[in-house]
Structures are given as structure tokens and as C-alpha cells.
Amino acid sequence: MNFDIPHMLYHRLASFTPGLSAGQLESNVLLSVYITTGYIDRRMFSIMRKPIYDYCRGDIESKLRALPTLPTPSDPTLRKAQTLVRLGYPMIHLVNAFKLVAEGHWTIIRQENLHGAGAAQHKEHGRYGGKMHSSKTCLV
Fold it and tell me: pLDDT of 16-73, one tens digit each?
């Protein structure tokens, strides 16, 4: 019999968190795990050193406003941002884009790793359903 123990656990824990459903709690926990493991993953340090990430922390708007006065960046995203700032593109949209860039890589590598683990598990255990694969893959 296929018991969805992690889901039962989220339901139990959600009973102690007013205003938060089991699904929301599970989603928050998994997001935190993905981000945390992304920070811990040694491969992330080379990504964090890339010039684009200098523009993703601190006073993003000031950094972007100074971008047109700098030499043409080697990073293609920064080159595009430089052009958009020069053209007068709304700064709020650029700032929000860089806030999103700041979070993208931290979650993507871990999810790709989990996808690979899930695919390998599905190959070996084809009779399990999607929830069981998701639960087991996240525990691996």
C-alpha cells in the first residue's frame, strides 16, 4: 500500500499554523529547501561571483543608473540593461527584473538535480505515482 506519509505530516503540522494550509506549508518548506541547498551547493559560488550579481544586491537602482557611464559590460544581460537604461526604459521594471535574477540560479540547480533523481527513480519504480515520486525524490 502506498502511504503518503510526508503529506500526512504537513497536514499535522499545518494544524499548528493558523492561516496556513498543508499545501502552502509544504510549498514554503520545499522552496526553503531548494534555496538553502542552492546556497550550500559549491557550484553556486562561481555563479555568485559573476558581475551580474553585483547588480542584484544593495541599492540596485543606483547601480543601474550608473551603468550607462561604464564601459560596455561583457555580460550579455548587463549589456541589455545598459542599453535599456540609456533608452530611458522604466527603472522600476529593470530593478524588479534584477531582483528576480537574484533568485533564479539559487533554485534552478537543485530542481534540476531533483528532476534527474526523480527520472531515475521512475525508471526503476514505474508503478509509483507522481506524489510518491515527489516525496521520495525530495527525501533523497
Answer: 888 888 888 888 777 777 766 666 666 666 777 788 888 988 899 999 999 999 999 9
CB-based contact 56:98 (threshold 8 Å): yes
Q: Does an H or E element contain 101, and which?
A: helix 91-124
Does the global pTM surpass 0.70? no
Q: How far apart are CA 133 and CA 119, in angstroms?
A: 9
Domain ranges of the chain: 5-14+21-139
Query: DSSP readout, 25-91?
Result: HHHHHHHHHHHHHHHHSTTHHHHHTSGGGGGGSSSHHHHHHHGGGSPPPSSHHHHHHHHHHHTT--H
